């Protein structure tokens, strides 16, 4: 698949842009802070309904504007669809497919599929568990769009249950604890829903990791053949209660049993409830899980060098890209100012993958940062200042060069 046209209105530094794209590489050149990354971020948002840079939507809306709109014309196997999403300050987001409104924005997931590699991806190796959970869940939603609804349901139940735990803890500490007993009874209902949606999300993550693991190993070996081998494991808040074949992707040969996982979650939730009430937080569930990345016999976090961490992060993104391709989807590959950070071997390995992509979008500060085989359509991104404001502007790279 590829995107034939991308249009933005009031997205970050872009008051308005409408750009025609084609299969193959497209390179956006410009100094830092000019707005190059914003273009890739907008397209990534259409793919995942989230930004790779910020947790909330508000920063995506141009300063002084009430809303922002992202529109793309996507071509998949000869079929063309127009998809857009509008982010409105203080109101629910809206989305359309071929100008027809959809009930929920998440219904557009799967129309545009993309994989983005950016400098922020070092956090996949060096950051908190939330960064790795998000990596898994974004890839999961791209691969199986209906999982976005499961995630939304799980997050909704998690918020309700967390509020109830705080209420129960406060009520139980008071002399008259009827409210606390009522909250405890209600907790049983929320435990059931948390286990139901949590088991679905957990099973999908485990299956995804089993499919992904060989691609991670292969990608890392191609990038850093002299380094120690890598391996990945799923670390659940269920601890030892989770079967070993669910923790180790190499031992997982079948689909995870959702009913088994739901029963395990219910059992463990009952055991941990006193601690949860005392602390007023949910201590068990997929929201507390992690993906352990190992380099040789050691955890990559805290052990891997800077170069090894870059290689690992790149391997994770390339693994996701190759997995989507193996599923029969040709995702858009987006590379945000990463070639300057890589040594020659890593640049060569990444360029080889990018050269095979149906469409690849690249940002770079200078032309020399982009491997020669990926120099195709080139655009220049610059900043324009007028009496009203300061904003980004796009021109043909050749037109922007001095004569």
List keywords for this structure.
single chain, 403 residues, 6-stranded antiparallel β-sheet, 6-stranded mixed β-sheet, 41% helix
Could you explain how this protein is built, in words?
This protein has 403 residues and is α/β, with parallel strands linked by helices. The protein is 41% helix and 23% strand. It contains nine helices and 15 strands. The chain has a six-stranded antiparallel sheet with strand order 2-1-4-5-6-7, with helices on one face. Strand 10 and strand 11 form a beta hairpin. Helix 4 (147-173) packs parallel to helix 7. The longest helix is centred in the middle third of the chain and has 46 residues, at 178-223. It is globular, with a radius of gyration of 23 Å. The two termini are 37 Å apart. 42% of the residues are buried. The model has no long low-confidence stretch (mean pLDDT 91).
């Amino acid at each position: 698949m590829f995107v034939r046209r991308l249009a933005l209105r009031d997205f970050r530094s872009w008051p308005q842009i409408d750009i025609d794209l084609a299969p193959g590489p497209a390179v956006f050149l410009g100094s830092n802070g000019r707005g190059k990354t914003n273009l890739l971020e907008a397209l990534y948002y259409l793919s995942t309904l989230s930004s790779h840079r910020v947790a909330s939507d508000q920063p995506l809306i141009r300063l002084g504007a009430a809303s922002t709109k992202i529109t793309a014309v996507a071509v998949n196997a000869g079929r063309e669809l127009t998809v857009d999403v509008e982010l409105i300050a203080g109101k629910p987001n809206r989305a359309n497919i071929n100008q027809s409104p959809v009930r929920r924005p998440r219904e557009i997931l799967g129309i545009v599929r993309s994989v983005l590699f950016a400098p922020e991806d070092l956090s996949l190796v060096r950051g908190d568990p939330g960064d790795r959970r998000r990596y898994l869940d974004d890839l999961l939603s791209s691969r199986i769009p209906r999982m976005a609804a499961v995630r939304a349901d799980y997050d909704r139940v998690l918020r309700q249950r967390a509020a109830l735990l705080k209420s129960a803890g406060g009520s139980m500490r008071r002399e008259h604890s009827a409210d606390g007993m009522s909250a405890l009874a209600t907790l049983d209902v929320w435990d059931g829903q948390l286990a139901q949606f949590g088991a679905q999300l957990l099973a999908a993550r485990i299956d995804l990791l089993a499919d992904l693991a060989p691609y991670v190993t292969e990608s890392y070996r191609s990038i850093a053949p002299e380094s120690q081998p890598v391996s990945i494991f799923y670390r659940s808040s269920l601890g030892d209660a989770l079967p070993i074949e669910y923790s180790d992707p190499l031992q997982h040969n079948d689909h995870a049993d959702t009913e088994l996982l739901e029963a395990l979650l219910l059992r463990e939730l009952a055991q941990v409830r006193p601690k949860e009430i005392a602390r007023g937080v949910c201590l068990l569930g997929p929201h507390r899980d992690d993906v352990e990345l190992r380099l040789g016999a050691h955890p990559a976090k805290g052990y891997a060098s800077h170069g090894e961490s870059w290689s690992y992060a790149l391997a994770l993104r390339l693994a996701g890209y190759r997995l989507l391709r193996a599923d029969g989807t040709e995702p858009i590959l987006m590379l945000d100012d990463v070639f300057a950070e890589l040594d020659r071997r890593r640049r060569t390995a990444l360029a080889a993958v990018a050269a095979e992509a149906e469409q690849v979008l690249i940002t770079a500060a200078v032309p020399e940062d982009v491997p020669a085989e990926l120099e195709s359509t080139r655009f220049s991104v610059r900043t324009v200042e007028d009496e009203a404001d300061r904003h980004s502007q796009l021109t043909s790279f050749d037109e922007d060069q001095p004569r």
